[in-house]
């Protein structure tokens, strides 16, 4: 559908075909919700009919799990079986289905690259950037404007506006001026002489700004309450990114304080004093040049 060579009439036909398949999945899912099979235990109990949105999400996930188990001949008593290594599209589909299941049960996805709590600031900043480069799995359904809610379609220019606002915030925070929006005050300012921190700061603000716009967030609360369903994956992802960046900034500040304390102690104590320590040498950041 998204291929530029697809004729318009075929796009409309494929969108209609998708709607029919989605309806069929939903109908099958509601049958499963009425009498959940044993293999659906990882999805939790079906929500009551008084919560139609949550029940529909459960029904859709159950139908997709049943389809996956049939297509891949899964013989385990519950769930979707082990993650396939090949082909890549099957591995990606497994990730998306796993994300749906965890969203139903509100279990958070573990960090892709866990970092020790005592890691240096440079390692934490690299982890934050890597985390932002690997967004959470999207829904397994194709992403195309004709399949979205009309009110949920955002022009492509919004992404550029989010990035521009993030750059304005960086300039303001480095100049000691008021930030463009109140929620940005909740994000720790980067160091004035650390380009990697500044780049992570702008990337983080861009991602958060995009999330807030799409989820109609307002006010000083950065992300708002954790949503239900698949949207919880993105909320968790951004929360982890904020934590990584904040931890890196605190670690960097502590390193600077220790270095200054050691330098002041070295200046005050005689060279023969056992309390005197040499200030740590400035190691290049990960052996790579800063990226502007």
What do these coordinates show?
- The chain is mainly alpha-helical.
- The protein has seven helices and no strands.
- The protein starts with 7 loop residues before the first helix and ends in a 24-residue tail after the last helix.
Key features of this structure:
292 residues; mainly alpha; 7 helices; 53% helix; elongated
Largest sheet: none
Helix segment tally: 7
Estimate the strand proportion.
under 5%
Q: Got a strand count?
A: 0
Overall, the morphology is elongated
Q: Write the H/E string, N to C.
A: HHHHHHH
Rg of Cα set = 24 Å
- Low-pLDDT runs: 138-156, 281-292
Average pLDDT level: 78
Kindly name the structural category: mainly alpha
Oligomer: single chain
Estimate percent helicity: 40-55%
In whole angstroms, the N-to-C terminal distance is 36 Å
Topology (SSEs and partners):
Elements: H1 8-34, H2 52-71, H3 88-105, H4 121-133, H5 157-174, H6 195-214, H7 231-268
Helix pairs in contact: 1-2, 2-3, 4-6, 4-7, 5-6, 6-7
The gist of it:
This protein has seven helices and no strands. With 292 residues, it is an all-alpha fold. 22% of the residues are buried.
């Amino acid at each position: 559908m998204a291929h530029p060579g697809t004729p318009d009439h075929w796009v409309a036909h494929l969108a209609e075909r998708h709607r029919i398949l989605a309806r069929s999945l939903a109908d099958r899912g509601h049958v499963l919700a009425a009498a959940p099979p044993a293999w659906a235990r990882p999805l939790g109990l079906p929500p009551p009919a008084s919560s139609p949105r949550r029940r529909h999400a459960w029904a859709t996930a159950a139908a997709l799990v049943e389809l996956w188990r049939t297509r891949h001949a899964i013989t385990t008593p519950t769930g979707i079986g082990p993650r396939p290594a090949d082909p890549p599209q099957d591995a990606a589909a497994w990730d998306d289905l796993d994300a749906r299941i965890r969203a139903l049960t509100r279990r958070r996805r573990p960090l892709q690259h866990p970092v020790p709590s005592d890691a240096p600031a440079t390692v934490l900043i690299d982890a934050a950037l890597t985390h932002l480069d690997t967004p959470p799995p999207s829904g397994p359904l194709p992403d195309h404007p004709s399949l979205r809610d009309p009110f949920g379609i955002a022009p492509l220019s919004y992404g550029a506006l989010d990035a521009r606002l993030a750059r304005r915030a960086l300039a303001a925070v480095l100049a000691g001026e008021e930030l463009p929006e109140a929620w940005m005050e909740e994000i720790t300012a980067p160091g004035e002489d650390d380009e990697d921190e500044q780049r992570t700061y702008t990337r983080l603000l861009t991602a958060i700004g995009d999330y807030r716009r799409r989820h109609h967030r307002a006010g000083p609360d950065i992300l708002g309450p954790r949503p239900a369903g698949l949207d919880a994956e993105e909320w968790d992802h951004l929360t982890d990114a904020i934590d990584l960046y904040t931890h890196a900034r605190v670690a960097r500040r502590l390193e600077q304080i220790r270095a200054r304390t050691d330098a002041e102690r070295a200046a005050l104590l005689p060279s023969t004093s056992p309390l005197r320590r040499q200030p740590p040498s400035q190691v290049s950041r990960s052996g790579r040049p800063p990226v502007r």
